[in-house]
């Protein structure tokens, strides 16, 4: 996910692919794990701010 944000890829698509790869039936189950990685949230927040500034 971190690399997806850094590369400017669609995080929703990346989360879906990661969810399938991990064998989760629902991307929300995968998202739960990502909440434990504060770096992901920080990168997502910066990206959102950049989009809002554009």
The class by helix and strand makeup works out as: mainly alpha
State the domain count: 1
The ordered string of helix (H) and strand (E) elements is HHHH
Strand content: under 5%
Cα(first) to Cα(last) distance is: 23 Å
Total beta strands: 0
Computed over alpha carbons, the radius of gyration is 12 Å
Report the mean per-residue pLDDT as an integer. Answer: 84
Helical content band = over 70%
Q: How would a textbook summarize the main sheet? A: none
- The tally of helices reads 4
The 3D shape can be described as elongated
Which residues sit in consecutive blocks of at least 5 with pLDDT less than 50? none
Walkthrough of the structure:
- Helix 2 packs across helix 3 (27-34).
- The chain is elongated.
- It has one domain.
- The protein is mainly alpha-helical and 54 residues long.
- The chain is built from four helices and no strands.
- The model has no long low-confidence stretch (mean pLDDT 84).
- The two termini are 23 Å apart.
- 78% of the residues lie in helices and 0% in strands.
- It has helices at residues 2-7, 11-22, 27-34, 38-53.
- The longest helix is centred in the last third of the chain and has 16 residues, at 38-53.
How are the secondary structure elements laid out?
Layout: H1 2-7, H2 11-22, H3 27-34, H4 38-53
Helix pairs in contact: 2-3
